[in-house]
Amino acid sequence: MTYKRKLIEVALPLEAINRESAREKSIRHGHPSTLHLWWARRPLAACRAVLFAQLVDDPSAHPDKFPTEQAQAVERRRLFDLIERLVVWENSGNEALFRQAYNEIAKCFDGKPPAILDPFCGGGSIPLEAQRLGLEAHASDLNPVAVLITKALIEIPPKWAGRPPVFPGAAESRLDWSRATGLAEDVRRYGQWMRDEAEKRIGHLYPKATLPDGSKASVIAWIWARTVTCPNPACGIEMPLVRSWWLGKKQGKEAYVVPRVENGRVEFGIGHDVAHAPIKETDGTVRRTGAVCVGCGTAVPLAYVRVEGKAGRIGARLMAVAAEGHRRRVYLTPTTEHEKAADVPVPDDVPDTEIPHNPRYLTTPNYGMTRHAVHPAPAHRPHHVRRSRGRGAREGVRRCPRHRRSGGRAAGGRRPGRSRIRRQRCGLPRIYS
Questions:
Q1: Longest dimension (CA), the chain
Q2: pLDDT digits (tens, 9 = 90+) for 341-359
Q3: Is 74 inside a domain boundary?
Q4: Whole-model pTM?
Q5: Cβ atoms 367, 309 nearer than 8 A
Q6: Would you tell me how many other CB atoms lie within 10 Å of the CB of residue 57?
Q7: 429 falls within a domain
């Protein structure tokens, strides 16, 4: 069998591919990066272009069709034009364009293009783009998070493609439920239902924030700082342990915490003036070798902080409140109401297990925090208890008519087939679910 050179071995429109790959970083709506954080996610544009170019023959591999270099250059330019359209994010749903790309691939393999295998799929970019090009995709990974992400990208949506949503009343809201729009509508509606139920049951534990104009807004985050008592006998304040005072550095929206000592107690304010913002030498109180007291400037070694932690004398103070503003976060000075909101009884059934002793990766036991229940703030524990037990998810499943009709099985009365997304352990693949 004569080997035929592929397009990727000769040339690629790298400028267009690089431009669209870089542009993807600023695209949020509908991009797989918003599904779950993955630290080494490959750009979809690059994966799409590389898959296409390594499957399509270069014109020089067909001298009978393109006998001259000029004819080969013209054909190569046509393929480049196709790639340049493929990598544009706005064309991701262009079925006619991807059908054309598939036909180009298929004619290089007598109508039977090969399956694509990504043994270390990570964020799932390669198998996703292989599937988008109409190819059969297989993937595996050692990390169960990678497996879960990739299953959600390329295995679950095709199972429900073209089906209407099952959430009561959702199917009547429109006529066309092509592709995975029905599944997406169910995710939106059941997600909103779970959020509303959680707010009914534990929403009173999370008070609203008051914006400068007097209106109320939902809180995005309560920003806390650990504290220890300053070892200087002449000071003795509860000094905050903070890596950085900065809350946001985006141009025009700068915000930072301003600590001050009043009546032997550290109080926190919010600053926005860049001229008075923290610089490298004054940013935060924690360094590699220890901490610095904001009241008296005493250098505090890490050994002292660890001793205080193991003795149970590490405290916590609320530094700032981040609330939802109009298309931006609003950082507010903490109030007594919000500090008291965190002081709630610990649920009886809060998960409380020992943290493994592994100084290389888990340093919290060095500071006396040896159990998992110590880590969430008290007000967050009811939320963690409900989420860890999956109560909302199970109730949502029981509400699903399709689930009730099939007795927990997939549509059609049978359980889903084996997954093509596998998790590997010790070199042996196994199904992960």
A1: 92
A2: 888 777 777 777 888 877 6
A3: yes
A4: 0.68
A5: yes
A6: 20
A7: no
